[in-house]
## 1
Amino acid sequence: MSYTIALAGNPNCGKTTLFNALTGASQRVGNWPGVTIDKKVGKIHGTDSELVDLPGIYSMSPYSPEEIVSRNFIIDEKPDALINIVDATNLERNLFLTLQLLDMGTPMVVALNMMDMVEAAGDKIDIDGLSKDLGVPVVPISAAKKIGINDLVNKITEVAESHQKPAPSRFSGTFESAIVAAEGALKGKVPEDSIRFYAIKLLEGDKDVIEKAPQAREQIASAIDAFEKEYDDSADSIIADSRYDRIAEVVGSTVKRAPRDEKGTLSDRIDRIVTNRWLGIPIFIAIIALIYFIAMYDGAWGTSPGAWATGWLNDWFGELGENVAAWCEDNAVEPWLTGLLVDGIIGGVGAVLGFLPQMIVLFLCLVILEEIGYMARVAFVMDRVFRYFGLSGKSFIPLLVGTGCGIPGVMASRTIESESDRRITAMTVTFMPCGAKLPVIAMIAGALFGGSVLVGIYAYVLGICTVILTGVIMKKLKRFAGTPAPFIMELPPYHAPQLFNVAKAVFDRAWAFVKKAGTIILLSAILIWFLCNYDFSLNMVESINDSILKWVGDGLKYLFIPLGWGDNWEFSIASITGLVAKENLIATMGTMFGIEEISDEGEEIWDILATMLGSAGAISFLTFNLLCAPCFAAIGAMHRELGTWKSTGFAVAWQCVIAYLISVIVYVVYGSIVGAQIETISYVLCIINIAVLVYLVWARDPFRQLNKSVEEEVE
Ligand code: GDP
Ligand code: MG
């Protein structure tokens, strides 16, 4: 028989590992309707049953889209059975969700995961006792070691076949009678099977349930009053407390913990060092420096694997371009076609794909850190800083990946549980200087600042500050408020990385990158090539100075006069071609200034830049290009995460506007310090911009109370 089976559990309890172990390569990934949360479906090995991976959640209250998705799936789609995966090393927290799932009346099996670690610690869990207490079958497994997987498959099939429903949780005294009263009031208005779930939700004051049965809540108002009075607390906290009491009872009677070493487990001891208030950040910086060294370093101490492979691939694309050009000439191919092939397609796509080896090395290192469990510590360490600004420490990992490339950075935001944090992160990742922006930074540093490393540091500091600024402002908007992300302090113990998980994660990220290069970048490269090479009567032009793009640049340049770019159309055009790939800026300016062959960091145009921009104009040019809309490929990635073009448009507009506001301020402030000649319009705009930003940062946060109360509750 073929059944639909849902997989539910807390984040980090091994859900993905179990999903992979059960379904292998048969996975399909889509989206849950209306939200940008992955929906993974796969066929369970050796059966015809389908396994649906629900998002990782801690409870069934409708606070987050993840919880709503899970709840709606179980209630509306009625899976035949439910696997609730539970981290056996952390039963107290995990069973909180289990108790709620039991009330939903779906046939269910508890998969008690991480049993290998329980055994290693010398703890004993009475499986039969646990099963009896909870009223559902419990199967001990280790997803990572693939132990107990067959038992689990047999059990879940059996439960699905027999429709064996779990026994709903029972409580005592006035609480139980309030539940029974609520069940009575709800009879016939909600599905009979999950009536206990609804009854408890009604007592909790769950909006969705009240909406479904508006009179029911009034009918039982006196019962609620009675028991709120008895406990002198609100219904929802009494319910949470009762559940924790029950869990303590269950755990107390079924788990025998071996005496713990005074110093704690090895994980604890490592954590004491790496999450130390003072050592945490320096250790983290050292690890990241090492990773960058492996992925990108190319200098006096030799060439790193990443840099070597990138160099090789870039040479290969270079040769490919030359060979194709030569072949075209030999075969008298039309010049426009040669140009399209060589400059448009091979040049544009090659420029982006050239980063791939470096990316793969970078992803590999980061994925290993993630698998081991170190990234959770980084998020924890950074949370101390980020929380201060109302952001989650978990946003930090995408930002970190984003310093390699914005595409996987934006994609990495997917692991953040709270939708609002995830969206804000996806919108802000590309403020970080990615690999393609480095040559631009090097060019500006070389042209006007004697190659000073301070320019590079400025770029990273600017990126982080803009992320924080955006976060602070966005949190005040309705669409990002109301779903805070409490940091779950419990850190999973360190694990040896799973080869399959690592390989799959690296492959997925690299493949997404290649797909973007093959689609969006290809199209945009062709478009920009066309605008550079044609005039309005669609004749191919000799010089970019006669092209459509020049006309666009002539119009746009006025917009950038307040930024100190002067009466030069070239800089606005360069910024546009940067949308294909940021390092394109340099090649475009080379073309516009009539340089035949331009080096990576554009040494040939340093003098021109110095005279045309001056140091204040140059720093504002850099600032704008670091912050404004990222390359098309990254915009595509943002669209995937944000879900709609409307949100994506909002994000891109925000990036461009904030880039403009900040660049004007940087120009005027820096220009005043070095005594540059600044136009009045710049001064005026600068004052307005500062006023706008100050207002946005200090304006009252209308959702603060909401954010805070939910946060306290979760604590
Ligand atoms: P998810 O967040 O629930 O999807 O959890 P993951 O599947 O990503 O697992 C989190 C971590 O726990 C990973 O490092 C896994 O390798 C590890 N893990 C998962 N199952 C087990 C297990 O049974 N035993 C051990 N020792 N580690 C496990
Ligand atoms: Mg997972």
## 2
Amino acid sequence: MRVDLHTHSSRSDGTDTPAELVRKAAESGLTGVALTDHDATEGWAEAQDAADEVGIRLIKGIEISTVFEGVSVHLLGYEFDPTHPELVGELDRVITSRTERLPRLLDRLGEHGIEINAEEVLAVAGDAAAWGRPHVADAMIAKGYIADREEAFRDWLVPGKPGYVGRYSADLFDAISLVRAAGGKTVIAHAWARESKKKLTAEVLGELAAAGLGGIEVDHPDHDELARAELTKIADALGLAKTGSSDYHGTGKGHQFHLGANTTDPEQLARLLG
Ligand code: AMP
Ligand code: ZN
Ligand code: FE
Ligand code: FE
């Protein structure tokens, strides 16, 4: 059994449609895959049809943009009711804020000689339910301003650079409660990647566990061996499930994020979802 618990389709900022993603998961030898688009569940139905066709297990998921003490934290949610009113309301706030920041972000790029309009971003975003900075990056690539998404995230679209505009995120503890209220399980995504490492100490992870957190994504391409070893100890001490995943985005991220780059132990999967 090989299960990858964190992937993105074109319904957010991945480049494969949900069906393509599931078919590729099966071809790469996975027996299960979770679709976890940013702040959106719109890809679930198409992914489920494809999973039924190719005979692998689909775990229906999401990656929610949350904030804890001013720092961005990504929360994976699994197997919850996607119509739960309070959860839907909170996800709507995040999606709306993603859309509302676009004109301001493009104005700022314009001040620095990057001329892109909203239609051009929405065109490259295709059928995405949640558009994000990677789509702005794609529009910049399409118009020849930059070579790849890497360059956008190095020189333009991050805090301190010209094309960064913040947006609304759900409170981390609220998001855990909402997913639980909707019948689902939660896992902190790439807990010690980027800036969240400073905030998500063993103590804070303990508070999150007490608040109903189900697991920690230990095996992620952005975690080195030391981070994985430390997070393993913390998860074991707290009785949390340890998951492994790729954070696959199709061609939108490097090869280290290939499908199945990390997988989740069946026992841990059962502990999380069982
Ligand atoms: P946003 O959803 O607008 O906040 O954009 C953040 C998303 O951009 C992350 O969730 C990643 O999927 C993606 N991302 C972050 N850094 C990079 C990078 N260096 N290259 C490609 N995609 C990235
Ligand atoms: Zn993404
Ligand atoms: Fe993430
Ligand atoms: Fe992700």
